Amino acid sequence: MFSPNSLLSLSSLYVFIVLVSCFSGGYSSSSSSAPTKIGKGYRLISIEETPDGGFLGDLQVKQKNNIYGPDIPLLQLYIKHETQDRLRVYITDAEKQRWEVPYNLLPREQPPASKQTIGRSRKNPITVSELAGSELIFSYTADPFSFAVKRKSNGQTLFNSSSGGSDSFGEMVFKDQYLEISTQLPKDASLYGLGENTQPHGIKLYPNDPYTLYTTDVSAINLNTDLYGSHPVYMDLRNVGGEPYAHAVLLLNSNGMDVFYKGNSLTYKIIGGVFDFYFFAGPTPLGVVDQYTSFIGRPAPMPYWSLGFHQCRWGYHNLSVVEDVVESYKKAKIPLDVIWNDDDHMDGHKDFTLNPTNYPRPKLLAFLDKIHSIGMKYIVIIDPGIGVNSSYGVYQRGIANDVFIKYEGEPYLAQVWPGAVNFPDFLNPKTVAWWGDEIRRFHELVPVDGLWIDMNEASNFCSGKCKIPKGKQCPSGTGPGWICCLDCKNITKTRWDDPPYKINASGLQVPIGFKTIATSAVHYNGVLEYDAHSLYGFSQAIATHKGLQGLEGKRPFILSRSTYVGSGKYAAHWTGDNKGTWEDLRYSITTVLNFGLFGVTMVGADICGFYPAPTEELCNRWIEVGAFYPFSRDHANYYSPRQELYQWDSVTKSAQNALGMRYKLLPYLYTLTYEAHISGAPIARPLFFSFPAYKECYGLSTQFLIGNSLMVSPVLEKGKTAVKALFPPGSWYSVFDMTQTIVSKGQYFTLDAPLHVVNVHLYQNTILPMQQGGMISKEARMTPFSVIVTFPAGASEGQAKGNLYLDNDELPEMKLGNGYSTYVELYATLNQGSVKIWSEVQEGKFALDKGWIIEKVTVLGLGGSGETSALEINGSPVATGASNIELSSLEQKHLQDLEDGQDKKKSLMVEVTGLNLPVGKNFAMSWKMGIQG
Description:
Layout: H1 15-19, E1 42-49, E2 55-61, E3 74-83, E4 86-93, E5 130-132, E6 136-141, E7 146-151, E8 157-160, E9 173-174, E10 179-184, E11 190-195, E12 210-213, E13 231-240, E14 243-251, E15 257-261, E16 265-270, E17 275-280, H2 285-296, E18 309-311, H3 319-332, E19 338-341, H4 361-373, E20 377-382, E21 386-387, H5 393-401, E22 406-407, E23 410-411, E24 413-416, E25 419-422, H6 429-445, E26 450-453, E27 465-467, E28 487-489, H7 529-532, H8 536-552, E29 558-560, E30 572-574, H9 582-597, E31 603-604, E32 606-607, H10 616-626, E33 632-634, H11 649-664, H12 666-679, E34 684-685, E35 704-706, E36 710-713, E37 722-727, E38 730-734, E39 740-744, E40 747-752, E41 759-763, E42 767-770, H13 777-780, E43 785-795, E44 797-807, E45 821-831, E46 834-842, H14 845-850, E47 853-862, E48 868-873, E49 876-877, E50 886-891, E51 893-894, E52 908-913, E53 917-918, E54 924-929
Parallel strand pairs: 18-19, 18-33, 19-20, 20-26, 26-29, 29-30, 30-31, 32-33, 39-51, 43-47
Antiparallel strand pairs: 1-2, 2-3, 3-4, 4-17, 5-6, 6-7, 7-8, 9-10, 10-16, 11-13, 12-15, 13-14, 14-17, 15-16, 21-25, 22-23, 24-25, 27-28, 34-35, 35-36, 36-41, 37-40, 38-39, 38-41, 42-43, 44-45, 45-46, 46-54, 47-52, 47-53, 48-49, 48-54, 50-52
Helix pairs in contact: 5-6, 6-8, 10-11
């Protein structure tokens, strides 16, 4: 939904530049001046081993100063190799407990409680300066204290907080409201992550671009600005003599922060909390996300239908419009699984209500019965602000249960769409129970299939301390609903509202309480909004997940705008308010790929753009990209012209092509969802995930992979009918025309891409399961399977593999062993003209009960003549022609001949059709290729 804070170019915001100008040592993105150094750091005065296998040390400030407040004099250092590939380095106040991300929100090991034994003798003092684990080594210098993390296998330094005497950064600083620490970096390191922001330079972090982390409702059209989520983690990929090594660094801290990446160094400046670093050893990109998500939580299981196409719009004024949209998709023969409502269904914008005039319940229930009967689903929006209204049951029960965030002892008053609102405090267990009960009540009113939680940064149309004005209606009901109409006063009286260090909030150093909850407001147990601010959407997602899962025991689907470390365990994400421009189309790829690194694998952008208005050509190209986002949804603003895919004949054709392919690929996408859930592997990935040694793809942000080996190379520029695409070394096959082959030595190819064509290629050594597609996932899911096998073009030897996961997608867990799932591993070999393909099935009963069969096998890249012989299936010879089974071959077309001096082998596509192989049973198939004369 459109939000008031979205367009930062509004002149009213610029007044804040005046408020925050020229604070000494404040935010500066300039790289020319040496950074201000604060203090002389700390010295390590003791260190000992702990019973849990960790190490505990004491740090003492060397020289006090008052820049950004007094230093904390004594710190506690805790180091532990928590697993063979994860190291924790934790630094906090030795004498007072400090704010940390709550352990119940993000479960993890608790460090030892401070013993306050500074200056006393330690029981198990250690004298070594290196503490080695299986993969990583922690080393330190005592005075001034600094630490380094190295890779054990090759001695490479991954993180080093010592400036080594250079001017690039100062010593570690630890004050109540200002923490600073830095690391050296090699110039050739490629960094990714640190979100959420819209990165104009692509997926690689760009030196001297600002990276501010503080959850904020500003539109994604604002570049290099702190957006809806906070993910203080980066992946670092280095190529050492042709060998790739990746690792990741997480700073688990929810306070606002600026991160300054200079190319040869990276500096964190944080306004609270602790240093809680986690280092993940990798060394592959997939290994990094596996280790990261094993710590923060694996991506959530997703229902099968969520991988279908979704349609939404803010401005479906009544139910008949929604019914017409569903019918129009059907007429246009464009697949559609899920229809959404923004807040149009609500009574006066109030959560958990229905508008009795525009969405009368009997008619809505009849509509839902109709779409549910064919497998379609319905999702609606929920905002966190609860309308202050004495006749509104949700509000009454909230007040009775004392669930709201407080300011000076009263529920904090803000304004969002319903007018005056209070914000639920999801850190309070009573709020979680109340929220779950409201979801249950609403589900009894309307059996929705998922919930969309928006505005949860949290967004507020006002700032400061507000009260409801007397004698005027607020909002007035005319004009835009996002103009603040409460009587408000700025709050600057506390150090929480006006901290000494100003992060670059909203890209303009606005006060951190601007258009959100006042940062001196109080949560459960006295927790300050100042500390917990960026956890609001995360805590709401956890509460919503609990509420939905408790309803019918079904697998929940939640879409959240605001996210934090660990949100992917509960929710999907969309990239927020984008615009119908070619630039926004390009940016969307980078943001989607970043969220894969963050462990939020179900992610997509608003297809065709949220703000007005895409051109017909742009919408064609956007659905060709969006059909391959993990989460694929068209969504538009209230003020935009209608932009459903059927509104243009040309877009209808592109949608039929691109979504038609998506629906054939659903079994592959669903298998990737399972792999994400068990290993964190992103569904959409940068190319370097599969080709980490190939440096040319380290910054590539205009193409992406789905899984390991399916590459999307879209048109992202106006007026183009060809695309220049990078192909890593090997053989690639077009999935739209499998006779089309590209053999690359690692080079760019120019591909034809007329308006209705998107180039999608499958890499060698892969087995891809597909089905026949359909207009809805439920129907597509029951069609026969085909299996695509790819070998290097013209090779005489090769191996390929793939997999397939199937289950009852309504069950909460996505796992084997419950009697409602099947897992199939697929293998193929090519050896001197002999082709073998077989499966190994685990727990085949579920697939057998469903009656799924493999009807066709296609093998690409085979050498030899077109003659095939000696077909055997499950050990028995098959005489083609004597049954329905047929074996045929076709020569493949190469986009570019291999260069002179190389063998110009031709390659063949061989198809075996008329099969009836149960997916739930092991099968084996083989044949011989004729020798080329």
